[in-house]
Amino acid sequence: MSSFSSDYGLSSSSSPSNMESRKQAVMNQVRSELAYANLQEIVTKINEKCFTKCISKPGYSLENSEKQCVAKCMDRYMEAWNIVSRVYLSRVQRESQSQGGSL
Question: Residue limits of the Tim10-like domain (predicted)?
Fold first, then answer.
């Protein structure tokens, strides 16, 4: 068995139901880590894009116009991200259904 299998307690001597539950736990952990990485990417992109667009003279505090610009920029970025995510997920689901769910 590979080191992955032994690291997660998956061995040939495990019962099928126990192995399936461990496999499910590993998959859930991977999903969780991907969601966290996705969130980090969104925050980083928002910081980069909105700072560059809205903060012309960095200082110790933000002017009201800069605060408003950052807030609007963040809202637009999140709205765009949500639209793209929904379209992408619907496309993946459509393709999965057209292939008989064999993805």
Answer: 29-88
